[in-house]
């Protein structure tokens, strides 16, 4: 239902329901609903469920897009690059060992982090009431 009266923004408007950013991100990281921390956030590897089976929170308003992949590159890169530099500076490992160790590690670390990081991003967006996660949105924002 669209209200025609302009909404007046006060401090209290934003305080209707406290959403803690860190606990929401932690719950999302564990693949759980950012609001209740119980229901499953994902129905497939990177597909979020439509809503929380426990508290009913609608997950569809999230817009994680490319941010999880970007963050995973930043995180894994900051682990892999200094490690490789340190090992190569201190030990001269054979090339085959280099590739046999770094490539699978990079691949598995990226794969393993994608879902938790995406969950954390969805939790962040929910906690900050971004996109459709604001149940009391200001007027004049066109639908996506
Ligand atoms: Zn829930």
From TrEMBL:
Pfam families: DUF983 (PF06170)
Transmembrane regions: 67-87, 93-114
InterPro entries: DUF983 (IPR009325)
Protein keywords: Membrane, Transmembrane, Transmembrane helix
Official protein name in the record: Zinc-finger protein
Organism: Bradyrhizobium centrolobii
């Amino acid at each position: 239902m669209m209200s025609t009266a302009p909404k007046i923004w006060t401090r209290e408007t934003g305080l209707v329901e406290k959403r803690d950013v860190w606990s929401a991100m932690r719950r999302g990281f564990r693949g759980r609903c950012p609001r209740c921390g119980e229901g499953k956030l994902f129905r497939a590897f990177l597909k979020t469920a439509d809503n929380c089976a426990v508290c009913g929170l609608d997950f569809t308003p999230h817009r994680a897009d490319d941010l999880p992949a970007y963050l995973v590159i930043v995180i894994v890169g900051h682990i892999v690059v200094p490690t490789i530099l340190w090992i190569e500076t201190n030990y001269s490992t054979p090339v085959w060992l280099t590739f046999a160790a770094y490539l699978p590690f990079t691949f598995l670390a990226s794969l393993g982090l994608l879902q938790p990081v995406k969950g954390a991003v969805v939790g962040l967006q929910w906690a900050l009431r971004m996109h459709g996660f604001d149940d009391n949105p200001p007027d004049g924002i066109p639908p996506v």
